[in-house]
Design brief:
675 residues, 40 helices, single chain, 64% helix, disordered N terminus, mainly alpha, 4 strands
């Protein structure tokens, strides 16, 4: 999905260059007419054009809704915008869903009416769109509620998902969820999780825990454990479940699932709510010792949980070391029998021991003994633990760890395939098949000791940069280590930024401190493609007041960037409350922009600048007269954030209760009822 979203951004940005910024009504009508073409490619192309126009394509709503029943597909040719990019196959129905989402609030009345259709897939598509539009589409609730009585279970559940998304306070949803809890619905607890602060949520979850169905108990335990806390009451509710061996099926993705015991959910929740270690640790030892426990695979998660116990009781280090030795023996036996084997038990134990230095240092003599092992895998792991626990006294072990990591990391020369095969065979002979996992164990042990990691920083950066470095080692080991080191790891900034592909700025780069701002500015000012530039601007916005030198770059994009870039930049500017004096005038200027999505984004961001509300409130009240319902709706929300206690705000909201769009009226009425 993330790939598809990024792809969509690419397409939209490119099309603005080809097709221009402002569509005329005549152009919109041509696109609408194109939706009736017998040629699937033509229909698909016109849907893409309408999607790029956002709310300005509101005249196409009915025609796009009709296409939700279209079973055709089309080829979206990326090479129209970028040479050698190829193409992607899309279906017309999903493209129409995206276009209707982009129209937004303007499409809600016609989407509501469309729910009366009996076509199952059509209804599901409409519900999906309403769910994405969120609370602003609350007027649709009256049309969705009857679907809760549908004989189709999927329709009923998605309808309730939609209602929960529309109904932030639970006025509509909670009576329905209460009834589902009473009838033993295994998803009822999940919906309760949407209302963590509702006064009835805790009591209803307590009731669900008494169900005879483990699926209901497991879901309730999961939701309880993830409620805001810590909470002593939640600990009291979950403790009796630590012996509950009932299982439930949990979806991992659309194509995979796993079995989870109720006790697993309870233990996770107890950790989240800081239950006493003396209550939990015996349960983990029991779990590791019980017959049938998948020690090779699942024990890594158990060791991770043990590390979260605060404080970790005395003797934990020795007990974990026992399981480490058991894991080594398990692997050696499996290899002799030529069976598949896993080392996650060893990895979990190694990291656990390394993160418990005060308890684990007394194990140094036993680790020195393991360091002499003829099993090179065991020798390398023991060396890593020696280094993590006492780097000053184990220079030989450190040299061995570095040697093994670099041996496993050395990229083979593609020009010499024979040498590459020989090197791979040598690695496999000495360390087994799963050499990537061994590298993860060794680097994890080094990173577990922050002082050692700081000392080894140049090597860690070198390994991070290695094209042969496993993505898991990068994301789950090295990046968290750099984040813990914070500004001490700023030398890694360039490599981290070059490996950053998400539109959400990762915490690890922000943790390096404001010294990385000049580097980000250099990247943002360079000859970057549009979406890449947005990536750097999103990061800069995370630095708040330290991003002041970068403001000229933001202004430049606001003036000359593509519309979608400008919308994104306005969103980022709303994350700079410390720069209110500089940002507010620029955002107010955007309230006069020709494009409604720009105005809507500016209205939303202005709601974050309470310090400048004397200037902002009059501008937002003026925005209440905008021609587009989306802009008027977000103006209501922003005014509420800035203060219902002010007479001009209440007067404006009172006027909005008579707005021509039902969603705006509903939002205004709800706001006025808050005070």
């Amino acid at each position: 999905m993330r790939y598809l979203r990024t792809l969509s951004v690419w397409l939209c940005l490119a099309s603005q260059v080809i097709y221009g910024d402002q569509p005329s009504p005549e152009q919109i009508q041509k696109y609408i007419a194109g939706l009736e073409s017998p040629d699937e490619e033509v229909r698909g192309e016109n849907i893409l054009q309408l999607q790029q126009r956002g709310p300005e394509a509101r005249a196409a709503t009915a025609a796009l809704i009709k296409r939700l029943k279209d079973k055709g597909g089309f080829v979206d040719r990326l090479d129209r915008y970028y040479p050698d990019r190829g193409f992607v196959a899309r279906d017309i129905r999903s493209a129409a869903i995206s276009a209707l989402k982009s129209i937004g609030l303007e499409a809600v009345p016609e989407l509501e009416a469309a729910l009366a259709d009996d076509d199952r897939l059509f209804r599901l598509a409409v519900l999906q769109i309403l769910q994405e539009l969120g609370p602003k589409a609350v007027t649709a609730a009256d049309r969705v509620i009857p679907l809760l009585k549908s004989p189709d279970k999927v329709i009923r559940r998605i309808a309730l998902d939609v209602i929960c998304g529309l109904d932030q306070n639970g006025k509509i949803a909670m009576p329905i969820i209460r009834q589902l809890v009473a009838t033993g619905d295994d998803r009822a607890a999940a919906w309760l999780g949407r209302y963590p602060n509702h006064p009835d949520t805790l009591a209803l979850l307590e009731s669900a825990l008494k169900s005879a169905d483990p699926a209901v108990r497991g879901e309730a335990a999961y939701v309880l454990g993830n409620l805001p806390g810590p909470s002593r009451k939640i600990v009291e509710l979950l403790l009796p479940l630590i012996n509950d061996e009932g299982t439930r099926t949990v979806a991992i993705s659309n194509h995979a699932s796993t079995e989870r015991q109720v006790r697993d959910e309870a233990l996770d929740g107890l950790l989240n709510h800081h239950a006493p270690a003396d209550k939990l640790l015996p349960e983990y030892w029991k779990m590791l010792d019980e017959k049938g426990f998948d020690f090779a695979v699942r024990s890594e998660l158990v060791f991770q949980d043990i590390l979260r116990l605060i404080p970790t009781p005395p003797g934990t280090g020795e007990r974990v070391f026992k399981y480490y030795r058991d894991a080594v023996a398990f692997r050696q036996k499996a290899m002799k029998e030529d069976e598949d084997w896993y080392v996650s038990a060893e990895l979990g134990a190694v990291i656990c021991l390394a993160r418990l230095p005060e308890q684990s240092r007394r194990l140094l003599p036993q680790l020195q003994e393991l360091f002499q092992s003829q099993d090179e895998y065991v020798r390398a792991e023991a060396a890593a633990l020696l280094v993590a626990l006492d780097p000053a006294s184990n220079a030989k072990a450190l040299a061995h760890v570095v040697y093994v990591i670099e041996l496993l990391s050395s990229p083979a020369d593609p020009k010499d395939q024979e040498t590459a095969k020989e090197l791979q065979a040598e690695r496999n002979r000495r360390f087994g098949d799963d050499i990537e996992y061994l590298r993860q164990v060794l680097i994890s042990a080094i990173c577990a000791n922050d002082k050692l990691a700081e000392q080894m920083l140049p090597k860690l950066i070198e390994w991070y940069r290695d094209p042969g470095c496993d993505w898991f080692v990068r994301r789950e080991v090295l990046e968290p280590c750099f984040m813990r080191l914070g500004p001490k790891a700023k030398a890694a900034a360039g490599d981290l930024i070059d490996n950053f592909h998400s539109f959400d700025a990762p915490d690890v780069i922000v943790a390096l401190g404001p010294d990385v701002v000049p580097l980000l500015m250099e990247k943002a000012e360079g000859p970057a493609e549009p979406w890449t530039q947005l990536k750097y601007l999103a990061l800069l916005a995370k630095f708040d007041k330290h991003a002041r030198p970068a403001l000229p770059i933001f202004w430049k994009v606001l003036e000359s960037g593509h519309p979608l870039q400008r919308v994104a930049v306005i969103k980022y500017l709303g994350q700079l409350p410390s720069l209110s004096a500089e940002v507010t005038p620029e955002l107010i200027k955007r309230l006069k922009d020709d494009r409604c999505e720009i105005r809507s984004a500016a209205v939303t961001s202005l709601g974050a600048f309470a310090e400048s509300k004397d200037v902002i409130i009059p501008a937002l009240i003026a925005a209440m007269q905008d021609d587009y319902a989306e802009v008027r709706a977000v103006a209501v929300e922003s005014l509420v954030k800035l203060g219902l206690d002010q007479a001009p705000v209440r007067t404006a909201l009172q006027s909005a209760t008579e707005d021509r769009h039902p969603c705006v009226r509903m939002l205004a009425n709800e706001a006025l009822q808050k005070k």
